[in-house]
Amino acid sequence: MNAHLRRTFYLFVAGFVSLVGMLAYWQVYARESLANNPENGLQTQRSIEAPRGLILAGDGETVLAKSVEREFNGTTVYDRIYPEGAPFSNVVGYWSVKYGATGIEIAENSYLSAVAGEPATLDDLINQVTGGPQPGNNVVLTLDPELQRLAYEELASSVTGRGAVVAVNPRNGEILALASYPSFDPNNIDETFPELAEAPDAPLINRATQSLYPPGSTFKVITAGAALLAGISPSDTFFDDGSYELPGYTVRNFQLKDYGRVTFTEALVYSINVIFAKVAVEKVGAEALAQRAEAFGFGDPYEDFPLPVSTSNLANTPPSGWTSGTTAQTAFGQGQVSTNAFEMALVAAAIGNDGKLMEPRLVREVRSPDGIILDKPAPSVRGEALPEETARTLNEMMQKVVTEGLPTAEVPGVKVAGKTGTAEAPPGEPHSWWITFAPADDPEIALCVMVENGGRADEAALPIADRLMEAYLKGGVE
Amino acid sequence: MTQRATTPMILALLVTALGFVTLTFSQEATSPPLIYGAYYAGTLFALYLWVRLLLPHSDVLLLPIVTLLTGLGLVMIYRLTFDIEGAENLATTQALWILIGSGAMFFIVLFFRNYHRLFDYKYLLALAAVALIASTFTPFGYEVNGARLWVAIGPVNFQPSEFARIALIIFFAGYLAEKRDVLAATSRSFLGVQIPALKYFGPVAFVWAASLGLLVFEKDLGSSLLFFAVPLLMLYAATGRIAYILLGSILFSLGSTVTYFLFGHVRVRVESWLDPWQDPDGTGFQILQSIFNIADGGLTGTGLGAGFSQTIPEVETDFIFSAIASEMGMLGATAVLLTFLVFVYRGIKIALLAEDDASKLLAFGLTAMFALQTLVIVGGATKAIPLTGITLPFVSYGGSSVVGNFILTGLLLVISEKAGRREVEEPVYEDSL
User: Fold this and answer.
1) Are B43 and B102 in contact (CB under 8 A)?
2) Which residues does chain A have with pLDDT short of 70?
3) Do B12 and B71 touch, CB atoms closer than 8 A?
4) Is the predicted pLDDT of residue B416 greater than 90, yes or no?
5) Please, which residues 126-155 of chain A have a Cβ atom closer than 8 Å to chain B?
6) Mind listing the pLDDT tens digit for each residue in B259-312?
């Protein structure tokens, strides 16, 4: 009988070992994802009892979020304060015991929260073991606070007062500004949340990353990239008679113009739909067009980015099933194409950075309360959107868009490249887009401005970008 | 086995004291009346001396382990309830139950040193066990959270199944020891599985089915699982026939499928185990809170009193392990699991060293019950298996469970005394684990 007893004992031992395995799974492997789960209320409860870390802007000084002490029923509790308020709230987010958390507050919670992360320094460990108060770590963002504020104000005074601005450093992928309007004041979110959630202009939605819009003609830079790769040169000439008939669909130009014989560069400068549709259908093909869009980030959920990003999309069906009409409309960013300012800013940045798409980053570094660097992500290349030569060619074509077509976009003394988009969005007015980067030869900033239902690109979006660009390049901010 | 374990006893009591000191100083909890601490430490230490005196050859580590686990339970129960209105006195009530359990053990050690007499009453015990379980259907029984597990007689409320399980194990041990040869040597076969003659297997099957059936209808899932698995393991230990395990697994699958479709509460349990995110604020709430708290503990834990495990419903009974994992971390929780495993190891060792089949089976059955109960509730709290509401032996709050487990340990001690004495007289080396 003893052999049977021993065997059952081994069975029990196996059971206990698997339980330790379960513990390891929850307490080590799945720990962080559970701590950041929106259903998990422990972190908000903890924030009342211990101070969370600071959230700082890219200058390392501007405080975007901090915890302040307050006496309550004889014990110390902490309130979360957002000194910069609404202009930053779509990035920083809020931290509410009632309504959960959003933005950097939840994405970087394992650093910000007093004890959600493992002890990172010896001080942390000693504090934790002795049960002392454990302040969280400080998160420094990449945002340029002045540019962010200015972008927010510009959107506020735009035609419709609804839109988004995303600015990115093309060289290293740092997000310099990510503004959305209308926004909200995160300071009294517990009281205002129900009203904000019901508001018709959806202030809780981050328009820069979460909403999807047709990109209109800004998408032509991707089509142009695909066309250059398909062997078309900027000086190749095409004939535009004002329409391009396809089975079941006829392409026409903006405001029904016709341009006659033009070069490919001129087709981009004057944003000629007919020629882009023709090139996409006859020279590039659906597969190559979709492949190029993917290289630029379409279809990518950007899961490593701290803010939720709605995935940009070309069409509801894979390119193999597109009709020539779908390909034609996709070529100039209409039909089923949907994207946001975040993705289009990255498109501009990738072209400016000789075709290399950098990993977009919002967190520059994380420091412990006593200043020890805990995390400092290095710039990394996310992928090749275009080969270097092709990107340079496209860069020059985009400079011509400014020099030959849009003198208002020029910044004195600086070469600017860009592309307009006036995206039809019936029944409303078209969305107004402008993507740009400068200085074109060695860009320091890439921008995308989108004004929801703002009308013509050169009337709503472009002037905003122009002022932001000038402020950033001339104002000497960083 | 004549050595002493005074140091482990003192260490176990010190751990408990340290826990209360930490709570009092770092959480500013008002200290519970010191007199309860003195009672607790005094009783268990006296019990230890009493056992050493009366059963000098008995297993030496069981009582220090029981002391450590009950002490840890007191610390955790106190930590979880001292600031909850209406439940401030839960820890002192638990201390009282530990006193009663110690008393029960005292009497077992005193009167049942010749525990073989128990096997003479095995049929009576089986009858008593079934009657105990059935007693919840009498007017004395009442429901808590939809399960009819409780009986109130006068001022005393208790869960009869906690005591019935011990009576049943004694019955199975006595019966199987008597009939193990005829049960193992079978001639007939059914669907390729050899089955024993009904007249030998009948009593086992009847008692087994009766207790199980009643428990299922009381909606006591945890106990049903234990009452199913323990006799099955004992049957395997007695006969060594894997066929019983296979047959049992088939029966288990059939039974669980039937109960799954028959009972809504079983469906809810299984569904909230498979996908608690479907209803995170409803059926999935308890298990998700448990997981969040366990994860919150990380490797080293939040520190005693610094976690949020009070967010888990029923934390001081079914989910006390989650609170331990949260505040003492993976290291602390693993240490607690190892403590349970040492208890199981000692129990199996007692079974190995015991002289006769009935003693072996009794020690094994009691140990298996203890081991499975731990595995099932910790597995449930960590979402390894669906949740069934049973207690963590000695640690969870609960009078019947504490007293029942003291009786269980008492029986293991008297068996080990006999085995230990035999070992001193005629050492058996080949049987050590």
Assistant:
1) yes
2) 73-75, 114-134, 476-478
3) yes
4) yes
5) 128-131
6) 888 888 888 888 889 999 888 878 888 999 999 999 999 898 888 888 888 888
Q: Which residues contact A389 (CB under 8 A, 6 or more apart)?
A: none
What are B237's two structure tokens?
């230990």
What residues of chain A lie within 8 A of the CB of B297, using their CB? 27
Residues in chain A: 478
* Owner of token pair 């779908």: A326
Look up residue A475 and give its DSSP letter. Answer: S
The predicted-structure confidence for B54-113, as pLDDT tens digits, reads as follows: 999 999 999 999 999 999 999 999 999 887 777 778 888 999 999 999 999 999 999 998
Residue type, B77: I
Asked if A401 and A434 count as a contact pair (C-beta separation under 8 A), the reply is: no
Q: Which of A17, A18, A27, A46 to mutate to test the interface with B (most CBs of B within 10 A)?
A: A27
Give the count of alpha carbons within 13 A of B389, CB side only: 22
Q: Which ipTM did the prediction report?
A: 0.93
Query: Using CA atoms, how far apart are residues A382 and A397, in angstroms rounded to an integer?
Result: 24
* B21 Cβ under 8 Å from any chain A Cβ: no
Rg (CA), chain A: 26
Distance of alpha carbon A140 from alpha carbon A478, whole angstroms:
15
Chain B residues whose beta carbon lies within 8 Å of the beta carbon of residue A114: none
Give pLDDT tens digits for B382-392.
Answer: 999 998 888 99
Which domains are assigned to chain A?
A: 145-184+199-363+381-474 (3.40.710.10)
* Of A239, A269, A240, A243, the residue nearest A256 (C-alpha): A243
What element of type H or E holds A96? strand A95-96
CA-based angle B157:B47:B45, to the nearest 5?
110
What was the pLDDT predicted at B180? 81
Residue holding tokens 């096997």? B119
Measured in degrees and rounded to the nearest 5, phi and psi for residue A138 equal: -95, 135
Mean pLDDT confidence for B415-419: 90
Q: Tell me how far CA of residue B376 lies from CA of A8, A266, B147, B386, B409, in angstroms.
A: 16, 74, 18, 9, 19
Q: In the beta sheet, which residues pair with residue A358?
A: A381
The answer to whether the Cβ–Cβ distance between B375 and A119 falls below 8 Å is: no
Closest by Cα among A298, A294, A257, A264 to A278: A264
pTM over 0.80: no
What do you get for the CA distance between the two ends of chain A, in Å? 80
Q: How far is CA B304 from CA B23, B26, B68, B79, B296, in A?
A: 7, 9, 16, 8, 13
Stretch B385-405: mean pLDDT: 92
Q: How far is B258 from chain A (nearest CA, A)?
A: 26
Largest separation between any pair of C-alpha atoms in chain A: 98
Structure tokens that stand for B177 in this block:
């020891």
Distance of residue A310 Cα from the nearest chain B Cα, in angstroms: 22
Q: Do B334 and A23 touch (CB under 8 A)?
A: yes
Q: Which residues have a Cβ under 8 Å from the Cβ of B347 and sit 6 or more positions away?
A: B363, B364, B366, B367, B370, B371, B412
Alpha helices in B240-356 (DSSP H): 242-262, 264-274, 285-297, 320-353
3-state secondary structure of A358: strand
Which residues in chain A have Cβ-Cβ distances shorter than 8 Å to B330? 23-24, 27-28
The span from the CA of A58 to the CA of A78, in Å, is: 25
> Measured between alpha carbons, how far apart are the two ends of chain B, in Å?
15
Q: Report the alpha-carbon distance of residue B426 to residue B295 in Å, rounded.
A: 51
Tokens of B197: 């003659």
CA-based radius of gyration for chain B: 22
Residue type, B141: G
CB contact, 8 Å: A97 with chain B? no
Report yes or no: B414 and B259 within 8 Å, Cβ to Cβ: no
Q: Provide the 10 A C-beta neighbour count for residue A347.
A: 28
Task: Give yes or no for a cis peptide into A145 (omega within 30° of 0).
Answer: no
